[in-house]
Amino acid sequence: MGANTSQVSDLSENQSLRTLIGTESISDNDPFWNQLISFTFISPTSRDITYSILFEAVTTMLVLLSYQLFHKEILRDGLIYQYLMKGRCLSLTSQLVKTLLYNYIRQEKCPPPATHLFEQQSDRGGLLYGLASGVASGLWSMFALGGAGSKPGLEQEQNPLPLSNQSLLLLLVLANLTDGPNNCPNPYRQAVTCFKNTQDMSSIPTEQHHMFQINFNSLYTALCEQQRSDQATLILYTLLHQNTNMRTYMLSCTDMENLVMPILKILYHVEDRNSHHVYMALIILLILTEEDTFNRSIHEVVLKNITWYLERSLTDLPG
After folding, report:
1. What is the tens place of the pLDDT at every residue in 261-276?
2. Rounded to an integer, what is the distance from CA 264 to the centroid of its chain?
3. What is the pTM assigned to this prediction?
4. pLDDT tens, position by position, 36-45
5. Could you tell me if 260 and 279 are in contact, meaning their C-beta atoms sit under 8 angstroms apart?
6. Which of 30, 56, 75, 296 lies 20 to 30 Å (CA to CA) from residue 36?
7. Distance (Å, rounded) from C-alpha 15 to C-alpha 126?
8. By C-alpha distance, which of 43, 201, 55, 172 is closest to 115?
């Protein structure tokens, strides 16, 4: 690289970068290319910076997958699809799924110095975030809900966790990609449905090519605390329905009320939710009530201070 070293903050004013993203075409032998590669900047190391980079990387993946939005038929010959399903990306399947899950688990808020990149009031950052969120939500709805739009509430619109939210959307889009030709299974769906607890010391079966381990307690806590959107409810439904290891763990928890109460709250505020969200909440309760251990344990719970139930005051209510 060249000697024109600068700070990351100078990138937005760099003329070479402005020309690169401009509307005019650039010939192969234009001196511009030499000027472009001569510009260097100090590699960012602070979390104020890396958060933004991670967010943009996840959002870029969602945008690259958005081609399916413009086609009624399922496309299996797209370049991005080919790379993800059987290209070099295939070996990174479990690592990517694990990273996206941990982004969701950490629920990390946007660092204050970089908050302006994501606020809706920002001229450029807010517009980009708004467009990216719209593409992500629309794409996820296309794959997971048959094109039905979500009905975001006030909590979702004011979500201070853009990386967590986008990571969950990308995870759901990847897991709901159609299987490949010749009955080749979706590796991302396989990874979502077979991962194990870090406390599980048993060996990983050799036939499970995309299995990995993750902290079930941290994931369970995130699932309990973040049931504000339909995508959060969908990942809960997916894990309960398809991941035997996670379902067994959740049913063994002694604080199941922390999971059930947010689901009941979704049903209580049914007028603020779309039909798919309500349906998923009902199916989750149905799956849970099929287990005798859950039915016994949930009736032993005493509920206190249910503040969102407005018809009457409920205190010390037996399950």
Report:
1. 999 999 988 888 888 8
2. 23
3. 0.71
4. 766 565 555 5
5. no
6. 56
7. 23
8. 55
